């Protein structure tokens, strides 16, 4: 790296003239004086000053409606994890999820904001990509929008390339491709504060001059640079790039000739360069190209080869050579690059022994916290539930309506709400893993294990995300390059224990082991999670050997730097998770609770002195449970558990509310909190007087819940992601069969060994 | 740079070693992605960790490579 004179603290970036219409809002920011020649100058500041700059987060009180006619459309693109979604949120005021691992955004998101002159501007937040040579479905979305191939999205009017200033060279590679698109390009140079901390001084003026596009230094997470960016994007005429990477003459000539044979959509040159550099196997999969065009392409590649160049690598080499020159001229490094804090942490956290110990330690701590920290707020909810139940009992007249409210609605909904603290703690810990950058390290550690089952470590990120909920986990599979690998990951991700299983595990552990220490309960819960992981690995191996046979993919993944987790971001995710959970409690669980109450109440027995058990047995739910009993009896389950299983096929946590309803009906209106419910379940007897909930039955039931597919929302998302009914149907059948087989093995095997 | 030493694979390099990439011997698709992520011929890398996979630093970015892929990146040491 060339050493030079330190850059001045304040640097002016010249932007092309912007004729502000008379009467329209002019630049009022004191930092944007008019240039002597009349051209407005957007003044940015060098990193040192930028870090101190206080720029208000510019979010309009009510953002304009996207897709309004005539609205300027800007696509936000860049490498994964460079801060695109943070910038998108800062400009639009939206709350798109951000995180510190590649692949947080897997589909395009739209939002809008008001420009400097009050004009509405639409933003498209595209999934991160390293190159326009897309390898995975999320990268293909970005490529297709930028090239105008996406049928439902018009080609943007301009591109805002967000670059991570801390690793400019690699980020500039994508930018060098964007310059070929034939669109105006703006560079949002993000994280300049971190670059400065790393001893990198970047001269935005020189960078702008070398690249031929406007460069806006910024710190999107602090709102720094937003005013300058909005001014740049609000110009009446957006300037096209003045420069492109210089390619070898033969490549340039062939690309231009090939571009003439492509449909005129404005990005022919970029398309031609992509096709010329496309590896043969990918080219063979292109079905939209005519035989004539393919012949012309083949001829062009042969001419490039004849000139002594490799058509696949020639453009890449030329781009990096150009980037090297630009970086040498515009980046000044203070001191020699040594090992960073992230490098030192990685030496431990990715170590073959210490790394695993750290991973298992983190998981154990997470599950121990779920039990210990959540106890206090859970007790408050239980106490509130008890007080409300007693109050309703005292003020309402005895009858079906009181039974519906107390035994149906309260026992059903409040019985599930008590698990909200545990779910929030799980979300908090997963948020810490995501924001700190540890998620990618877990994938790294898992790579060797995953490769044994035919996947690579990257597939572990969707699986780990599925601990919170399988839906975002399945969405995250879009970062996986190969279709079959992605499908296998989708099929096994719901085997990871999601937060909806937490209430079931907690209840059953309380039923089976009421008196043991919390750490033992935490270990039992951890073992359920481990069982889910092991099952996912085994099924992935089986699918890769049979249905979805393909080569084991190779891992190639960027590891983000460790960062201090954003507490506000994690709290936002906890709030969202709580909102989703409460919405489910108020809709699906409420409706199912009322339905299950009705099914377990009617028809009533003729004998008004019938016991609770007799009343349920006489009801529709009782009949359904008894119809199912012959099928589930080999697993150790009685007909009342059968009612719970039927209820929870829509959503797992309904099992808890169903048990609450079933046993509160039996207790003649006594509203049971979880402790009372577990006590009631413990005392439940079979016809022969033996207890229903023995350790063996409980284990069998927990194993069933670990492995069964009991979530309609997950099946719906699998239907959408695979664009087929076949795969969700297959997934439902295989997971239900697996759950049944495993529970059968546990119960019958245990009995053979003399356990009970 | 020790021009005399024969290239060896990134897998067999020592952790902490500064290296220069001499050749990529993977399939065309993997070579393209390696290059696009900055692992081009003649680029300097530093191997950081070696366990389930390989961790190396290139252009200040940490990249994780599966061991299979690491065996297809030929490097030579850079003298300190």
Question: Can you tell me about this structure?
Answer:
- The complex is a heterodimer of chains A (756) and B (80).
- Chain A has 756 residues and is α/β, with parallel strands linked by helices.
- Helices cover 55% and strands 7% of the residues of chain A.
- In chain A, strand 4 and strand 5 (120-125) form a beta hairpin.
- Chain A is elongated and about 95 Å long.
- In chain B, strands 1-6-2-3-4-5 form a six-stranded antiparallel β-sheet.
- In chain B, a hairpin with a 2-residue loop joins strand 4 (54-58) and strand 5 (61-65).
- The interface between A and B is large, with 48 and 36 residues.
- Strand 11 (556-559) of chain A pairs antiparallel with strand 5 of chain B.
State the main characteristics:
heterodimer, A: 756 residues, alpha/beta, Rossmann fold, 6-stranded mixed beta sheet, two-stranded antiparallel sheet, disordered N terminus, B: 80 residues, alpha+beta, SH3 type barrels, 2 helices, 6 strands, 16% helix, globular
CATH homologous group name of the domain at 48-233 in chain A: P-loop containing nucleotide triphosphate hydrolases
Q: Assign a percent range to the helix content of chain B.
A: 10-25%
Rg of chain B to the nearest angstrom? 11 Å
Report the β-strand fraction of chain A as a percent range.
Answer: 5-15%
- CATH architectural label of the domain at 48-233 in chain A: 3-Layer(aba) Sandwich
SSE string of chain B, helix = H, strand = E?
EEHEEEHE
Beta-strand portion of chain B reads 35-45%
Multimerization status:
heterodimer
